[in-house]
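Summary of Year 1 activities. Much of the first year was spent building the evaluation harness for sequence design. The harness presents a backbone, in tokenized form, and records the residue chosen at every position. We chose the following record to illustrate the format because it has been used consistently in internal testing since the harness was completed.
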């Protein structure tokens, strides 16, 4: 199943015009990180993002959001 999904993602990334190096940097986990960051930028609070992603620790969520625009945990 993992190989099947990887093939699908690679075809989608290739169609986007990204180079192979960028495609290789993506993973299924990239989607999880991106979703958390998108929710933060859309104005959802940490509790809502934690529920959506199944996180139980605010510290772990903070690691997912550290590069998000409008990051409340940015240093």
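For this record, the design step produced the sequence shown next.
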């Amino acid at each position: 199943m993992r190989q099947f999904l990887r093939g699908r993602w690679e075809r989608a990334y290739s169609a986007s015009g990204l180079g192979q190096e960028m495609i290789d940097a993506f993973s299924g986990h990239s989607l999880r990180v991106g979703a958390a960051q998108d929710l933060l930028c859309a104005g959802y609070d940490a509790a809502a993002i934690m529920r959506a992603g199944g996180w139980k620790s605010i510290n772990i969520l903070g690691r997912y959001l550290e590069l998000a625009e409008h990051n409340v945990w940015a240093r």
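The first helix runs from residue 2 to 15. Quantitative recovery figures across the full test set are reported in Table 2.
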